[in-house]
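Exercise 7b. Backbone tokens:
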């Protein structure tokens, strides 16, 4: 395998740590807001609207974190199987500059573009 991937692996491990910490912080924050909810009988309606908004925001944030975490985990597995730096789709080496910019990239640019087009072409869920 090409030299110098160790630095990228360390970056990914750091990223995983950061994402895990953010997840913990997020669940702690939602536990705290559960507590405040019970103690405030005034302005109920407005509060609920805010809560729904906060909850949506919270969920979106959590989903984003989980997605990133899954990507990072996936990439770390590729290190173990010795396929790091290779495109998941076509098996071609991913250019070094792309990995430097995006250590968790698991597709080469060509396949990434194709995938993005694919997602757009697929019938939307709504
Ligand atoms: Zn590819």
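Sequence design result:
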């Amino acid at each position: 395998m090409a030299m110098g991937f160790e630095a990228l692996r360390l970056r990914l491990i750091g990223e995983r740590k950061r994402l895990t910490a953010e997840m913990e912080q997020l669940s702690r924050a939602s536990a705290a807001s559960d507590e405040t909810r019970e103690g405030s009988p005034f302005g109920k309606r407005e509060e609920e609207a805010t809560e729904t908004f906060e909850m949506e925001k919270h969920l979106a944030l959590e989903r984003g974190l989980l997605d990133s975490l899954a990507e990072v985990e996936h990439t770390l597995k590729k290190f173990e199987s010795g396929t790091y730096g290779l495109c998941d789709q076509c098996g071609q080496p991913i250019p070094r500059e792309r990995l430097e910019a995006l250590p968790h990239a698991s597709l080469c640019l060509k396949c990434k573009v194709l995938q993005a087009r694919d997602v757009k072409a697929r019938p939307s869920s709504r």
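Instructor comment: The two ends are 44 Å apart (CA to CA). The chain has one domain: 5-121.
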